[in-house]
Amino acid sequence: MSDPNQQPGGFGPSPYGPGQPQQPGYGYPASPAQPPQPAYGYPAAGAPAQPQQPAYGYPAAGAPAPQPASYPAPPSPYAAPGYAAPRPSNGMGTAGLVLGIIGVVCNVIMVLWFVGMILGVLAIIFGAVGRGKANRGEATNKGAATAGLVMGIIATVLLPALILLLFAGAMGAASGI
User: Fold this and answer.
1) Within-domain flag for 24
2) What average pLDDT score do residues 142-147 get?
3) With 90 as the cut, is the pLDDT of residue 51 above it?
4) Residue 123 forms part of a structural domain
5) Is residue 40 in some structural domain?
């Protein structure tokens, strides 16, 4: 069943005759004389030191820290080449929204109604300035500025008027009118 002339690759007898050296590229490749690969784990006692690959994690004490590769920032799609686009200034609209919310909360508590009215006036001012910036394209938070304006109006006008009506109603009911 087995052919005595069969080569190790299983391709039949060698076309170069028995005892002839193998041609390059055919059969099993000859293993060149290479130094032995280092084994995993701890080196054997008395073995020569192998060069170490850089380790992962933090560098050793006193070793210089590797510098990360820095890449340039991608260009802005809204600016001319070489010039950075101006950043939106959303502070006024956000401040109007925050002050409006705090003003409404202070008015609902009723103990801090005067503070709520002051914060409501500031919310109206900041909200109006923020809407103006958003309309000019200097800010991107037109919705927050509008909400701050509305909350400022509620804190300044509507809630104090409601409180005044409730107080007048309570005083009228107490006097018997």
Assistant:
1) no
2) 96
3) no
4) yes
5) no
Query: Do residues 126 and 93 lie in contact, with contact meaning Cβ atoms separated by under 8 Å?
Result: yes
Q: Is 122 exposed, middle or buried (0-12, 13-18, 19+ CB in 10 A)?
A: buried
Reported as a single tens digit per residue, the pLDDT across 12-46 is 665 666 655 555 555 555 566 666 565 566 666 66
Contacts of 167 (CB under 8 A, 6+ apart): none
Q: For residues 122 and 98, is the Cβ–Cβ distance under 8 A? A: no
Read off the pLDDT band of 100 (50, 70, 90). very high
Q: What is the pLDDT of residue 13?
A: 61
How far is 4 from 80, CA to CA, in rounded Å?
79
Quick one: tokens of 170? 């309570």
Amino acid at 85: A
Token duo for residue 101 = 């919310």
